[in-house]
């Protein structure tokens, strides 16, 4: 007797073999062809799927930067550990270990000079937390804190770019961010750049998800990391405005996010003013120690003229060329339909850096968290042939890592 190969269910007939063909979990593909996570997985699997590209980029960048830094250090010079704690890194360590001064600082002649109150408290607080949890010395704790923040930053950036584009573009962008930028080494030093980027990127991810209170909280913390958090607040305001225009109704959570985003930096500036009994105390310290003030970009234009006509050595010229390239890349991002809050964040970081009178040899470090000028190249490489992508990323990563190592081992001024 021949067995029927179909089963009747009401008016429909389903092939018997099809009754057993549905898998328990499937992998879906978006229009760009990039595979997504399996539809049915546990939380740890989803977390690993989201994080592993960023972790791989972190490991690669750390090895590349640190090996080149060690190889390029002259015999008898301070070791890699000390190099990573140099300049501002030692000041952050001092704040974590000893706290802030309670007065203005003057030199032997009585002239006002800068002091540690110029540095915002979020990164020293993270250093102190790592020290308390691990028992490590404050210097090593500062480096561990920076590396942990760097991992968080890369995960957040990868998640953000994946949401805006696709995973391949996100992976390329994180490689450019961590390896190819000329001063990406700062992310691994005892500097606040990695923590600032982690908090800023987390703010943008939360805003894109419309998790407004989370976005506001991250923006508040960003405001306690660096004064450039004004760029993060502006980006969050843009995200809220776009949301309210779409929804055509006002709710309290987006407005609360804006209030939180605008509170961090003013709170610290107020605290410094109250501590020193002078409202503009932070600005006074900043100008006395680093001659940092808003000058509408006049110092930058003067630097460009100096770099291309009078400068002795290749560092000023390369700095000028690279900064001009970043401006061009940012302009390209404005023409490519980039998410407006990301555009505003990155452009504001660039404007704040170029519009102030800070040292020209620090500007490439100050713009490393901006992201926006990396997007056009990341999108182009994500659609290029794999061989082309690998060659370009390898060459760019070697150049960026070498540049940072040179500035830390051979350049005589602060970065």
Helix content: 55-70%
**Radius of gyration over C-alpha positions, nearest whole angstrom:** 25 Å
- For the secondary structure, the number of strands is 4
Average pLDDT score: 91
Class by alpha and beta content: mainly alpha
Order of helices and strands: EEHHHEEHHHHHHHHHHHHHHH
Shape, per Cα inertia axes: globular
The stretches of 5 or more residues where confidence is low (pLDDT under 50) are 1-35
| Strand content range | under 5%
Annotation field: number of helices: 18
- Placed side by side, the strands forming the largest sheet appear as 1-2
**Biggest β-sheet, characterized?**
2 strands, antiparallel
**Distance, first to last CA:** 86 Å
Main location: endoplasmic reticulum
InterPro entries: PIG-V/Gpi18 (IPR007315)
Keywords: Endoplasmic reticulum, Glycosyltransferase, GPI-anchor biosynthesis, Membrane, Transferase, Transmembrane, Transmembrane helix
Membrane topology: Multi-pass membrane protein
Structural commentary:
The protein has 415 residues and is mainly alpha-helical. The chain has a domain of 280 residues. The protein is built from 18 helices and four strands. It has a two-stranded antiparallel sheet. The protein has a two-stranded antiparallel ribbon with strand order 3-4. Strand 3 and strand 4 form a beta hairpin. Helix 9 packs antiparallel against helix 10, helix 9 runs antiparallel to helix 15 and helix 13 crosses helix 14. The longest helix has 30 residues. The chain starts with 5 loop residues before the first strand and ends in a 6-residue tail after the last helix.
